[in-house]
Amino acid sequence: MGNLELSHYRAFIMLAEEGNFTRAAERLHKTQPAITKAIKTIEARLRQNLVIRRDGKGARLTQEGERFLVLARQMVDTEKEGFEALRADDGSHGTLHVGHTAIAREAAVAAAAKLLDSLPNLRIVLDEMSSSTIGTYLRDKRLDLGIVRDWESRPGLQSVVVASAPLRLVVNAQHPRLARVTRIASLRDIADEQFVLDVGGQPTRDAINEYFATHGAPSPNIVMETNVMINAVRLIRVRPAVVTFLCVAGQHLDHVPGLQLVDLPDPPRHSTYLLWGAPEIRKQSAKRFAQALREHLEAAVRDDRGTRGRTTK
């Protein structure tokens, strides 16, 4: 494929993934005209239309484009493998790509920070995405590792539980009834509270309703849903009467000023999973990231277990 460089292949791959010239440019830290020029160069070399342009900078691949995408990924993978083969296999150099869901953001960042303390020459790319996208990217070898919550086994992917945490409440320390309460005796005691539900990473409404029903309590009064945990936290801080659920280790929300965690009776547990695509984790930097992640989450779970207090009356 004479006169085409790896930058051309990368631009094409990113456009295929994003379906939009502007977003592809942002992902590659380039300008939108640069991405457009790269695509036009490829099409001129092949004398084929690979991309159908749409209004608003959108794009989708033609059949020829889909075939070229396979080649482009092979070219980039070959270059990456050749480059990394030149590095010492101690994980100290190269790039580590980690995908994580929103709920695992803090744990991913903490593990990356810990790893960079000992491997300052390693480049770590953290990419926040959905669980399904993480699975796809791992199978396509576009990610080295993935971090998700409550994962169901899928063909071609390996997984291991790195932490497990109980469902808990997050409340404002000025809550009218729950201030300074650290344990709920009965779910019926909080049936009348106003809840905000994080549908992006926390239990679903059905799972919450089932938990309350099992304990003989009516379904909680969910007054707002959001797909980002921080939005729920912000609401709680400005509206003390509202509470939310927390079920992932590593958030350390009990250290956030103005918030406190409250234990629930016989709470369901939810697990954080580490995913990878090959039969085993071969890249040394990935192994060391996995260890850093496990150490961070185990420490968070120990901190959580240290929180105990009185029950509601």
Report on this structure:
With 313 residues, the protein is of the alpha/beta class. The protein folds into three domains: 6-85, Winged helix-like DNA-binding domain superfamily/Winged helix DNA-binding domain (Arc Repressor Mutant, subunit A, Orthogonal Bundle); 95-163 and 271-303, Periplasmic binding protein-like II (D-Maltodextrin-Binding Protein, domain 2, 3-Layer(aba) Sandwich), CATH 3.40.190; 165-269, D-Maltodextrin-Binding Protein, domain 2. Helices cover 40% and strands 21% of the residues. It has nine helices and twelve strands. The chain has helices at residues 6-18, 21-28, 32-46, 63-85, 105-118, 131-139, 205-214, 229-238, 284-305, and strands at residues 51-53, 59-61, 95-100, 123-128, 145-149, 158-166, 168-172, 194-198, 221-226, 242-246, 259-263, 269-276. The chain has a five-stranded mixed beta sheet with strand order 4-3-5-12-6, sandwiched between helices. It has a five-stranded mixed beta sheet with strand order 9-8-10-7-11, covered by helices on one side. Helix 1 (6-18) packs across helix 3 and helix 2 crosses helix 3 (32-46). The longest helix has 23 residues, at 63-85. The protein is elongated. It starts with 5 loop residues before the first helix and ends in an 8-residue tail after the last helix. The model is unreliable at 307-313 (pLDDT under 50).
